[in-house]
Amino acid sequence: MSFTIARTVEDALAAIAAGARPIAGGTDLVVGARHGKAALPADLVAIDRIAGLDDITAGSAGLTLGANASHHAIEHHPVVAGSYSALADGSALVGSPATRHVGTIGGNVMNASPAMDTGAGLVVLGAEVELRSLHGTRRVPISELWSGPGRTIAQPEELCVAVHLPQPAANSGSAYLRLEYRRAMEIAVVGAAANVTLAADGTVAAVQVALSAVGPTIVSVMGLDTLVGSSVADAAEAAAAAASAQATPISDVRASDRYRRHTVGVMARRAVETAARRAAGETIAIPVNRTLGIGAAS
Amino acid sequence: MSESIILSVNGMQYPVTIDQGRNLLSVIRGEVGLTGTKEGCDDCECGACMVLLDGQPVNSCSYLALQAQGREITTVEGVLNGDAMHPLQRNLLEAGGVQCGFCTPGMIMSATALLQRTPAPTEEEVRVGLSGNLCRCTGYTKIVEAVQRTAAELQGS
Ligand SMILES: Cc1cc2nc3c(=O)[nH]c(=O)nc-3n(C[C@H](O)[C@H](O)[C@H](O)COP(=O)(O)OP(=O)(O)OC[C@H]3O[C@@H](n4cnc5c(N)ncnc54)[C@H](O)[C@@H]3O)c2cc1C
């Protein structure tokens, strides 16, 4: 049993190469262990004190989130909120203010829950995850990171050091929303993110949609290329139909598979509509869920 | 395996010897001896265990005590002004925001963090700020009112 506090990425890489598990905020790891889901790993290396690993850097090449960037920092970062809105919408929905201060983007993506709230946004925004070990660094497109519920293709000795997002296209906008039964402290019943680019005449120039909580991993909706040139309303309807068709939901205490299949289409339609409004320059407050009044009325 | 560390709680240094898996809540209550922080759901849902870590709210029931070393921990005992109540405490009492009182320490910690960052919150902002704290008695209205009264007082002073 050991618990060490890493001060540098190199310290952390050496510790995990020796078998320790990284712990960032612990909001998945510790809470899961307390639920009996998986025992707390015997050897832990705390990565939350590594200087600079929580930096959020926005530049002409795009956005880089250090793995330790908290949901609170992401939600309130003006560039994230303005240009990578689907990600801010997702982080703003995570748990409570305490969960958002402690929980990190690295922990969220590496925990690989299919119901995670940043995943669908990261997929439609074309994110890549930077994984590092003592042997080197590689970048993986985020949609290839997850191999099943709670599983990633990362090797045990790899640390996620950053999430990179390309500069969004001109005249594009994005949104993530989730169906929830109450307005806070929820887990997505289903969720959908969309990234929409508009042509000068207001028709759709590009659209990406991804879904949460309707499959073993985040689902990228395929076949939307044919929507180029259609109106936003037509694209939203078609995306809704494709989302419902491509979802492979389960039934559990939160919802039946049929209900999830239906509602994920509704969420996809609303995500496309909201993303298109943002692409057209409208400011819609983060998180869209609260702005649209999803969840029980207050 | 247990480890000896020093925790800084409300500005005082407490040497403690604890197992790796111990949560911060049990150490604050059991080793440090401050019992204002409560155990409710023990699952991050209710917020009765809320403390501040370097000024930010944390559910101490599910946070490893070892991970809090070197950080400043603030509990409800730490918000007093000497022997005087903090305005949040007084306003919660005066507005009727306290009934059984079990959620109150956690509410105070979340509200303290909220007012630090948002000195003049809207009602919606108060509700979001307290969204990790459950109260089964009051129906929240008077708690929200107490936080807003406190904000107005602190702004005025
Ligand atoms: C009350 C509550 C509510 C929640 N609500 C939501 C919600 O609404 N939406 C949502 O998406 N999630 C939610 N979560 C889950 C959780 O808060 C998030 O997934 C959070 O982002 C996890 O980050 P963390 O830093 O706490 O991860 P940790 O618990 O520290 O780590 C999670 C996993 O990732 C690994 N890991 C962490 N960092 C790295 C890294 N840099 N490289 C490699 N591996 C790493 C750890 O070893 C562990 O396996 C909630 C949790 C709680 C307790």
From TrEMBL, chain A:
PANTHER family xref list: XANTHINE DEHYDROGENASE SUBUNIT C-RELATED
What's this protein's name? Unannotated protein
Keyword annotations for this protein? FAD, Flavoprotein, Oxidoreductase
Task: Give the species this sequence originates from.
Answer: freshwater metagenome
Residues in the signal sequence: none
Domain named FAD-binding PCMH-type is located at 1-170
Q: Which Pfam families match?
A: CO_deh_flav_C (PF03450), FAD_binding_5 (PF00941)
Organism lineage reads as: unclassified sequences, metagenomes, ecological metagenomes
**Keyword Phosphoprotein carried by entry:** no
| Molecular function as annotated in GO | FAD binding; oxidoreductase activity
Gene3D superfamilies annotated for this entry? 3.30.465.10, CO dehydrogenase flavoprotein, C-terminal domain (3.30.390.50), Uridine Diphospho-n-acetylenolpyruvylglucosamine Reductase, domain 2 (3.30.43.10)
TrEMBL record, chain B:
Stated name of the protein: Unannotated protein
What molecular function terms (GO) are annotated for this protein?
2 iron, 2 sulfur cluster binding; metal ion binding; oxidoreductase activity
Which keywords does the record carry? 2Fe-2S, Iron, Iron-sulfur, Metal-binding, Oxidoreductase
What InterPro entries does its record include?
Answer: 2Fe-2S-bd (IPR002888), 2Fe-2S-bd_dom_sf (IPR036884), 2Fe-2S_ferredoxin-like_sf (IPR036010), 2Fe-2S_ferredoxin-type (IPR001041), Beta-grasp_dom_sf (IPR012675), Diverse_Oxidoreductases (IPR051452)
Which PANTHER family has this protein been placed in?
OXIDOREDUCTASE WITH IRON-SULFUR SUBUNIT (PTHR44379)
Please report the stretch or stretches of sequence annotated as the 2Fe-2S ferredoxin-type domain.
3-79
Give a yes or no for keyword Hydrolase in this entry: no
| UniProt keyword Iron-sulfur present | yes
